[in-house]
Structures are given as C-alpha cells and as structure tokens.
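Form 7-S
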Amino acid sequence: MAYSEFARLTRDQIGQRAAAAVALLPTASIEQHGPQHPVGLDTMCCLAVARGAAEAAQGVDVIVAPPLHFGSSDHHRPFPGVLTLRSPTFYRVLTEVVESLRLSGFRRILILNGHGGNYLMLQQVARDFVLANPDMRVAGGAYWDIARPRLEAVPAARQVLVPGHGGDFETALMLHLHPDLVRQDLLPVQHADRDDPRSAATAIPPLRGGANVADIDYAIFPGARVTGLSDDARAATAELGRQYYQIAVEEVADLLRSLAP
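Output:
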C-alpha cells in the first residue's frame, strides 16, 4: 500500500481513510545551518525521512501531512535566515494542527521531528493531547532519536555527533539527499571555535540521565553562538548520508507499523 500526501487528497478521500490510517506530521524549522547549508535543511531532511518511512511501512495506510516548517529557533538569532515561533506559539500551533487531524477523523498520529529545539514541546503536546483525547494514539520523536542506536553504530572517519547542527551528520544527509544545495566550497575543515577562548565546548553533550531528561544549557555550547555550527564536516560523505537515511527510514517505518490498527 503506497502512502499518500495529505495535500493531494480530496476532503472525502481523507474522511474515508482517516480512521484506519496513520497521519504522519513532520515538524522542523527554517533556520541557519552555517554558511554551507540552506536554511530549510531540517525540513528537507525530516520530510525526506517521513516520505521514505511512509513508503517503507508496507501494509500500513500512511497519510503524510504537510510539514510544520516553522519551529522554536530563537536560539539561532541573531543569524539571518531564522524564521521562528516563540515556544508558547509553537506549542499552540502544533496542538491545533493535531486537533485538526483529529477532527478529520485520524486516531493515530506520529509527529516526526527534525529540529532539536522542538523536542520538549513536541513531547508535551503529545502527552497533553492524549490525556485530553484518550481514544487517540499520538507518538512524537525526532527521527535521529528513534534510530539513535543504529545511527551511532555506523562506522565513520571519526565519531559523529548525532544529530549535531550543520556538522558531520546533517552534512552527510544533505550530500545524499540534496547535494546540489550544499556549498562544499564553504564547508569548514576545522571547527572555527576550537582555539577560541570564549568556547568551553565544541559539541552539544548528550542529555545526562537519558533522552527524556530535560538538561539543556546553551551556555555550555558557545560554539554555536560564534559559528552557527556544532562541529565541522570532515567525516561527512554522501555514502555516510545514504546509510543514515536508510536507517532512519527503516526505524521510523517500524514505529509506523506499531501505530497501525
């Protein structure tokens, strides 16, 4: 069973299928990703994984909703190219989009995230919505967290920060998905902050105590304030990106199958 794009269906087609289908809602951002990447990187990668997973989830009727392009990206200001929603606004917009899917007849929804700044509010929306609508199944998570053990096990030229920001992981994905949009002449060969005395760290550390623990402090990641990047892209290749993409597609497809009626 091939997946469908929500925006290409009629109202009656959606109404007839919604109760037995899984709605897949990509959420991401429009924000800077250094000098070498387009500002739509998060949305492009998340939407590609969503479509690939929907296609791979054989036997499940998946309807992929238009992506929520705008996320919570205040922390990327004052770089240009950042179109952001305030945190309460993002929470409200996402809640109302999920409510719209419910009113269309969907009872199973996967909110697939492609931007780290959305994570905590996305989880809260899913929890709050199910509490208010106990007949619903709503799951939410970033594609890299859904697939993290396998992604981190992929051999690379050096340890890759998953997902990072504009570094090895995202650059590899873009070299696979949209190589024409990567300014390879502007790829940093070494992180610009490594010798900057203002920087105490050059990578976002993992959340302590597990992925569900809110332990985020941007003060320990001053590198992004200076360069807009978490790490450079010395390990990034199109082949590495192909492996990351395929793993993410497979793991998200498994999650879709678990949500099916």
